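Morning, I've got a small favour to ask if you have a moment. The fold is given in discrete form, as structure tokens running alongside the sequence. I'd be grateful if you could look everything over and explain what you see. No rush at all, and the record is pasted right below.
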Amino acid sequence: MAFSLYIHIPWCHAKCPYCDFNSHAVSSWPEEEYTRALIAELRQRAQEAPWTGTHVKTIFFGGGTPSLFDPRSIARVIEAVDHACGIEAGAEITLEANPGTVVEAKLAGFRAGGVNRLSFGAQSFNPAILKFLGRIHSADETRAAARAAHQAGFTRLNLDLIFAVPGQTLDDVRYDLAEAVALEPDHISAYNLTFEEGTVFFTELKRGRLHALDSDLQGAMFDYVREALPASGYPMYEISNYAPAGHEARHNLSYWRAESYLGLGAGAFSYRRDGVGGRRWWNERGPSRYLELALATGLAEAGSELTGRRTAMSEFVFLNLRLRAGFALTTFAERFGCDFADCFGDAVARLIADHLLMRADGRVFLSDRGVQLGDSVFAEFV
């Protein structure tokens, strides 16, 4: 079976106060050296099961800000992937980009190098909210970047939005959605702001210098998002993701379906299914240490863990339940050798009785109320 490949580029011009990703604010970065390290790690991993002899079906350049790199560096990595593993015809190849770091010529370079999908971190079109979020681009730069992407030949374009930001109103959310839809992306991701441990926002929240929005207002914003985007031609297919049929983020679907994926780069995670369980591992987070190890040995693994049958079942359920279509009961039974209701009987019965979980046409999926209370449902399977 083909697999998905994640490639992490850890540098940004500035670190956003809500971001808990492995990203580092710098004014310059060792692009040539890092590109060689990625290719060295790729070549080493490509010799191992299950990647050897298996083609790549999706590639995702994440960060950090991958659009800081020159298109020729991205093209070198894509070419190396094709040489080492082979890239399936029609594979989805996504590059994350900050709207303020691209112009049409650079986007055309990415397109010529093999990228066929872009994901812009728009976050908001309100200048005050962008400033609060620590974003270094403007709303006009997002508009210009989206137009440039279309002109460069990209038909696959995602816009990321954040809602439930302290100080934000429901009218602000309405405005952001309308502005995003007007740019004609084929995919929109709309995330509820979370305060992750280790971020500036988390610290400010704990110190009482920052206050989350009232939960009722957050709920009203989420309700509006999941009603307004489908009405604009973007059906919800995952709790935070909206797109017409056939335009879903195929790379992310691999995660939500608990499939195997390979991660390259500083701090990247990988997962290999093995029977009913699997193995998860992660790379050194520090770019300097990653470079040292990857260039010397082709590997920069910092740690790993085995996932047993029970853990694998739990992950399969709560990841697949993020999808609006949920999962087929036969898929669960074939993968784990037992009936879903038998494995999670009490929790399933309770969630169905509470109208949070639905069972119909051989599938299990969240109800509308379950979508709104997703975290509580997922906790039942952990």
